[in-house]
Automatic annotation (TrEMBL):
Signal peptide: 1-18
Protein name (database record): Por secretion system C-terminal sorting domain-containing protein
The keyword Secreted is annotated on this UniProt entry: yes
Membership in a protein family: Belongs to the peptidase M36 family.
NCBIfam families assigned: Por_Secre_tail, T9SSA_dep_M36
Organism in which the protein naturally occurs: Bizionia paragorgiae
This protein's UniProt keywords: Hydrolase, Metal-binding, Metalloprotease, Protease, Secreted, Signal, Zinc, Zymogen
Main subcellular localisation: secreted
Entry GO CC: extracellular space
């Protein structure tokens, strides 16, 4: 049944929000202000804080989490009423006591303040920012509102949104707290949303982070694989009893858990909206029955094409009054031909991410993305603006996350073909047969325009091949008029690259009567990539050529040359072989990754602190990868199999590595990265100014390390609790991991975010959710990847001072008192088998990854008695029925020629 809200209730909610909501207020005015102040007073010495450091505190955000029963209060340190930028500590209050505290306060602040009086105005700070980032003339930037050193200015000619400015203190790398103007400008290009601190004494920009997170997906080129276009019907990822908002809507999409067109067929799904998260469906905004929009727009997202790349709403597919978005898909064309499908898929995935993660606490109170919050707390009017086939870039995607109440923006780009076509087919003769990869004047990267070199057409040119000869010292390069014209007439000429322009070679071949030209790259390993994207076949002649030309690499071409020199008769065909752009909106791993940036940016440090993830060690890319992996998991997956990110758009197959340093896998033979690698300062290139770039300078590499740990953690939870494909109501290990990580995000502080803080927040979340049942499991996973008990994340300003540690706490540590399970064996070796579920009620399954042969399986109680025993052959899976046993802990012993392992088992 749909939720109903009357106007009086809505008015009351809005009134309470205005009074007690997310504006900066004194800590004393918060419900838990006195409790928190007293706790800080008692514990300030543990954090090297003075009385003055905690005497002026403000609340930037506060909300209640239903699953943990925690009131999250985000407390901002201030000096004489001016907040210190991102000095926001996370305080978790449960059962009227401080359950967890994550510190981001600075010590001895009074000695670090440079001044209390600004000497430049807020509007001058805007001008300084515009000049710093070349945003153009200000235009009519005028003050719209002001209160207590907080201002709102019009957007003028430099911003897509009004410009908020307020006075803050900014910590510098030298430890000084400088008075600064904090402002944000949504650049007209749509590529940057600058969050800037401008020195209030001299107008210098001293700190900036970009709310637009550009993920640089397209930095790697890979082999192309064609996708699927077949349609199937009535797919559902979730349990049949899951409550859905039935409005009859239909969407032809790559339905989760499908990752992309490479991973399975497009599917027609009906009524996918979740009643709990989207009580009036995906096309509502007013809270009454019936959709307000019949296009790909609603309460959670507005998806449209932005082919012009100017952030102006383009076409949104129209499902008509029946909300039927069943558009047909043919991938064998440029993406503009299936634009409606791409935008519909983008709309679908954004809504699915909204609805799925709503179940785990990314709701209105915590700052999710909705136009209408339907009477719940938090700021509305911030649905996702999702732009498909965005024309402002290629081979990438980005997500901009402003603070709660402002619209986030997702931009999905087209992707250039990552491999060339096969315009040459060798029909017979020689050793090279079949389709041959080749570059053409239209596909060669760096081509300077159309020129007059003609590529293949749709009309096939089939003929025998002939090697050119100009009787020079390099006869096969064809730089001079050819002396074997009689051999070339009516043939496809084969010519070696070198010593003259392409146009000269092709002209000589055409003059000799050739009907086509194959240019073979010279034998230079540094200039002969496996796919020759970098050749430039540009050239101008008068008149233009009338025969087609292609360019192949040396490895293939030398086979043709040798065969022709041996007298073989080789027949070939040159014909147009188009390779089309791909559309990132069909790559669910990218769309979900981008949406994940919105989740982590809103949850870390509170929904009004979108810039909390701006330290060198912040793990945003890792969370986003993990979000993508979690919603595309299947029951058939295994922990060791390895998962790549963005394989479809990057032209890889389903087993491709993706764009990370390794696949995500628990198997150290596949992915052996640990926290120690965060200090890797191997130079991998330079920026445009020639400044060296090191491996650990790349946020995606640091994020990959964090994502690896979260992926390991997920599989340990699945090993213990099993897998549940129902992402709304499931109780499996994957569901528990999703809840744990989201609650951990909420418990982290602002700015002081790194792997150790992230680990501690996850441990605290487990304590809040279960009383600490899985502390041992969590510690083992983190320790195995180097974030053990003695690990240190160092300074927030450095990415080379981390300390890895591979030790778990001692068994006497009181935090481990409630542990109920340990891992099967050492996590940094490939496990011989996994046991699930654990705890269990009736049956335990022992799953193997290889044939371990005949084994003895015994279950031993805490008194050392064998209570169950059986022989089995461990090939795939064995089961042990424990239904007759009493509840409690047991030791499972598995022995054989290839295995001898003990592990704890809990009988519910």
């Amino acid at each position: 049944m749909k939720k109903k809200y009357n106007l009086a209730f809505l008015f009351l909610a809005l009134f309470l929000f205005a009074q007690n909501g997310f504006c900066q207020t004194e800590l004393s005015k918060n419900e838990y202000g006195s409790l928190i102040q007293n706790w800080l007073q008692k514990n300030k010495g543990d954090y090297n804080l003075t009385q003055n450091d905690i005497s002026d505190l403000q609340v930037s955000n506060a909300f209640f989490s239903k699953k943990t029963k925690i009131n999250h209060v985000y407390v901002n340190q201030a000096y004489q009423g001016v907040p210190i930028f991102n000095a926001v500590s996370s305080v978790s209050v449960k059962d009227n006591y401080v359950f967890y505290y994550a510190n981001a306060f600075h010590s001895n602040i009074a000695a670090k303040i440079n001044t209390i009086t600004p000497t430049i105005s807020a509007q001058e700070a805007i001008a300084s920012t515009a000049a710093e980032y070349n945003l153009g003339a200000l235009g009519n930037v005028s003050e719209l509102d002001s209160k207590n050193n907080e201002y709102t200015f019009s957007k003028g000619s430099i911003s897509n949104s009004d410009i908020p400015v307020k006075l803050v203190y900014q910590l510098t790398e030298g430890g000084e707290l400088k008075l600064a103007w904090d402002l944000s400008i949504d650049a007209l290009s749509g590529q940057n949303w600058y969050s800037v601190r401008v020195d209030a004494t001299n107008g210098e920009v001293i700190n900036m982070n970009d709310w637009v997170i550009s993920c640089n997906f397209g930095e790697f080129g890979h082999t192309d694989h064609s996708g699927h276009s077949k349609t199937s019907n009535a797919f559902s990822l979730f349990k049949a009893e899951n409550a859905m908002a039935a409005d009859g809507s239909q969407y032809n999409v790559f339905a989760l858990p499908l990752e992309s067109p490479n991973h399975g067929p497009i599917q027609l799904i009906t009524d996918p909206a979740n009643l709990n998260a989207s009580p009036y469906g995906w096309h509502d905004i007013n809270g009454n029955d019936g959709p307000e929009y019949t296009i790909t727009r609603g309460n959670n997202v507005w998806a449209y094409e932005d082919a012009n790349g100017n952030d102006t709403p383009g076409v949104s597919p129209n499902g008509t009054a029946t909300l039927n978005f069943n558009f047909s898909l043919n991938l064998n064309q440029e993406p503009v031909g299936y634009q409606d499908v791409a935008t519909t898929n983008l709309f679908y995935i954004n809504n699915m991410m909204h609805d799925i993660w709503y179940q785990y606490g990314f709701d209105e109170a915590s700052g999710n993305f909705q136009q209408n919050n339907y009477g719940n707390s938090g700021n509305g009017n911030d649905y996702v603006i999702a732009q498909s086939q965005d024309g402002s870039g290629l081979n990438n995607a980005n997500f901009a996350t402003p603070t709660d109440g402002l619209n986030p923006r997702m931009q999905m780009y087209l992707w250039q073909p990552s491999s060339l076509g096969t315009p040459l087919t060798i029909n017979s003769g020689g050793t090279l047969l079949g389709d041959v990869t080749a570059a053409t004047p239209s596909t060669a990267a760096g081509a300077d325009g159309p020129g007059n070199i003609t590529g293949p057409s749709t009309t096939p040119v089939t003929a025998n091949l002939a090697l050119v000869n100009d009787s020079s010292a390099a006869p096969t390069e064809g730089c001079n008029p050819l002396t074997n014209a009689s051999d070339l007439a009516g043939k496809i000429a084969v010519v070696l690259r070198g010593n003259c322009n392409f146009t000269q070679k092709i002209q000589n071949a055409q003059d000799a009567g050739a009907v086509g030209v194959i240019v073979v790259n010279h034998n230079n390993p540094t200039n002969d990539p496996a796919y020759v994207q970098y050749v430039n076949m540009y050239g101008v002649t008068n008149p233009a050529f009338t025969i087609p030309s292609i360019f192949i690499n040396n490895a293939d071409g030398i086979q043709l040359i040798n065969a022709l020199q041996n007298g073989d008769v080789i027949n070939g065909t040159i014909v147009e072989s188009p390779v089309y752009f791909k559309d990132g909106s069909l790559d669910n791993s990218i769309v979900t990754h981008e949406y994940g940036h919105g989740i982590s940016s809103r949850l870390a440090g509170g929904a009004l602190n979108s810039g909390c993830l701006n330290t060198r060690e912040q793990m945003g890319e890792g969370w986003s990868d993990w979000f993508a992996l979690m919603v595309t998991m299947k029951a058939s997956d295994t922990p060791e199999m390895g998962r790549g990110i963005a394989t479809y758009s990057n032209g890889q197959g389903v087993n491709g590595q993706g764009i990370r340093p390794a696949k995500y896998s628990t198997d150290f033979a596949v992915n052996d990265y640990t926290y120690a690698d965060s200090n890797d300062n191997t130079q991998i290139g330079t920026d445009q100014q020639g400044t060296p770039i090191y491996w650990n300078d790349i946020p995606h590499n640091i994020g990959f390390l964090w994502g690896t740990i979260l992926w390991d953690l997920t599989w340990k939870y699945i090993e213990k609790y099993g897998f549940d494909a129902d992402l709304y109501n499931g109780t499996g290990g994957n569901n528990k991991a999703m809840q744990l990580v989201l609650d951990g995000l909420k418990m982290q502080p602002c700015n002081n975010i790194g792997f150790v803080e992230g680990r501690d927040a996850i441990l605290a979340a487990d304590n809040a959710l279960t009383g600490g049942e899985d502390q041992c499991l969590i510690w083992e996973v983190f320790a195995a990847r180097g974030v053990g008990v003695n690990a240190s994340q160092g300074s927030v300003f450095s990415i080379s001072d981390q300390t890895a540690d591979f030790n778990t706490p001692p068994d006497t540590d009181p935090s481990l008192a409630n542990c109920t399970t340990l891992s099967v064996d050492e996590f940094n070796t490939k496990s011989a088998f996994s046991i699930h579920p654990n705890p269990a009620n009736n049956v335990i399954y022992i799953s193997t990854k290889k044939n371990l042969g005949d084994v003895n399986i015994s279950l031993i109680d805490i008194n050392g008695r064998v209570v169950l025993s059986k022989k089995a052959t461990l090939l795939n899976e064995a089961e042990l029925n424990i239904s007759t046993l009493q509840s409690g802990m047991y030791i499972l012993n598995v022995t054989g020629n290839n295995v001898n392992i003990n592990t704890k088992i809990i009988k519910n």
